[in-house]
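User: New here, any thoughts?
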Amino acid sequence: MEAKDTTATSSKIDPYLSSPSSTVSEGEFVLLIFPDKRQYFAQALKSQRGKSPSLKINKRSYSTHMLIGLSYGSVLELQKNSLVPLPEGEDVIPNHQDLSIDTEQPTDNTEANDNRHLVDSNTSQGLSIEELAKMRDDKDISGAEIVDKIIQNSSTFQNKTSFSKAKYIKKKQMKYQPRCRIVKCTSASVCEALFIKDARRIMNLREDSLGQILSYSNVTAGSKVLVFDTCMGLITGALAQRMGGYGSIHAVYTGMQPSYIDVIARFNLNFMEHNSIRWVHAGYLFHDEINTQEKLEGDDLDKIEREKVTWPCHLQPHTEKYLLKMESEKKRLEFLQKRCGRFARKLTRPTLDETFASLKDGKKCDSLIIASQYDPKETLTTLLPFLETSCPFVVFSEYMEPLLECFEMLQKEKLAINIRLSDTWLREYQVLPNRTHPNMTMSQNGGFILTGVKLCPIHGINELDEDLMKEIRAEMGTRRGGKKRKNCPRGGEENKLLKKKPSMR
């Protein structure tokens, strides 16, 4: 019984021993996916100071506090400026009595409808735009009722084919009865959402290309990864989520401070996963003309601030006044917890000098990932010395020509083996009865990937000396000759007989 109590207590303290939650927690980011492939990021936050954080969809604002506590995979319906959770079993596309499609071929006794007599005019719908606007603003009329009235007032609906009816109903439901599904933010879902929103900002990196990058780089828990990512921090966040807080990620950035922090927040990383990311300025690695190292050492605010922070720290007078104005003790505790977390991050965050020192000789990285808008050849040449020998590297680019230059350079200078240049291609299918076919619109290319394994930078492809080769050949010759093996007394005699045996033609 004591062992069970100890295990139960440790599982509550250590987040790694507990399984991930299947419900949405406060402060988490989720994805709302609609049937028309629209995707929105939403953060589940409670109302503060009488104001509830809102999400704008279809020119209307919806509160996100009701997302807290819902399970992933739940279906929501947008009703009159509110997100209403539907019962379990409901689909994103609502069921309708006329939505069934007859896949059987018509016989002589049955007549099949067709669209030959349909005329594209604005007179087929009996409801006007003003009447539809009034029904949408009326709180007593639901979206399903609006769809039914639109179908009833359509003079050409009954003459349509079953496929045309289903398409017509689905189109009206997405406009007047919109639904979405709650999806957890993972590496694949975040990549897909960013790709749909603006693929150019993430260098046209698809989810299948991201999976290949993580696989070829051989990143696991406990790895030490060096990554140069200009894809809005997408690869950095995916690495942190994959490693689970075990190991370290040295993320190279340009500019005054790391950007794309808001995108990394979409991964809902915990404290240990956030702490595994160590930012390294490109000036430390690329050695610009300006003495960036001395400049950054003088402006190392993290080091100065960490030296001045004392624990336990005293609250400042204006903070104490703010605490006294709070209504409940629960709000005070939440505020103090956030402040403690902020100070804990400052105390545990490594400085720029410490981060750069961890990349020097003897402390090199296990994997190298480059997905940058800069020249891949120059970037790879600069960052390859920070990679340990016999470790993999991955270079991603939208175009093939820069990677071809890297390929030739690696082969010519004998810096790597198992060099491969490949492109990724993905096709999405629509799978429906009698309507299975590839999607009409899809991305043409998901980029190109260059992979390889680093060799010793001094010897290149290791070549053995002639004296050493003679010793190896002599030793191998004695083994193949009359030397007897253990538990095989006739080993030498059998080898001699095999040599004298004539060949069979």
